[in-house]
Specification:
By secondary structure, this protein is α/β, with parallel strands linked by helices. Helix content is 47%, strand content 19%. The longest helix has 17 residues.
């Protein structure tokens, strides 16, 4: 299975990209997922060459194909004017409205104050409701004080990442959970009980 991180950052270095990457790494490591992260700092200039999906060139189509092919998305954005980044919205304007049905999505954001964290619930979660995706209950939100040199230093943010990854493990297909258990030396409960 594939997990794709999408970071709505339009500058580098980026606290948002750090959060998205931390979630992707934690999930890929724990659950044995193939992983990749796309930052809009790199992708937006390519995607803005098209206003509709039928105008995408090969590079833009490859980005949208990666989004549509992922089994799990980790989507993060800095809070801009009480919402997510416009470049991130443009990316999802190019995604087929049927492509994310049933996909699992972990939501994340960074902002200037704790109050900006409500953007996740009022802006990001409804976006994925439109796509009929399954957003996990725990979202990750961080402010500037949760970082040192763009690295997460907050135990609370790290704990939310772990909680979101645990929720993801519960909603992935059983075969993938069994593979993750074997990769970490755990035996499925039924096997352990019969041993």
């Amino acid at each position: 299975m594939k997990i794709l991180g999408l970071s709505g950052n339009v500058k580098q270095p980026s606290r948002t990209a750090s959060v998205v990457e931390a979630v992707v790494v934690a999930a890929a490591s724990k659950l044995g997922l193939e992983s990749r992260t796309i930052e809009l700092f790199d992708a937006a200039p390519i995607l803005f060459r098209a206003l509709r999906s039928d105008q995408l060139d090969a590079a833009g189509r490859a980005i949208i194909d990666a989004v549509e092919a992922a089994d799990v998305l980790v989507v993060g954005s800095p809070v801009y004017r009480a919402s997510y980044a416009g470049a991130l919205k443009h990316l999802f304007d190019l995604v087929d409205y049927r492509a994310l049905t049933g996909k699992r999505v972990i939501l994340a954001a960074t902002g200037g104050t704790p109050l900006h964290g409500l953007m996740i619930e009022h802006q990001l979660r409804p976006l994925f409701g439109f796509f009929n995706a399954l957003t996990l209950p725990t979202a990750i939100y961080a402010t500037e004080i949760d970082f040192a040199n763009y690295e997460i230093t907050s135990p609370a943010v790290r704990e939310r990442i772990e909680r979101a990854v645990s929720e993801l493990a519960q909603v992935l297909p059983v075969s993938n959970n069994a593979a993750a258990d074997r990769a970490h030396g755990n035996r499925p409960a039924a096997v352990a009980a019969s041993a």
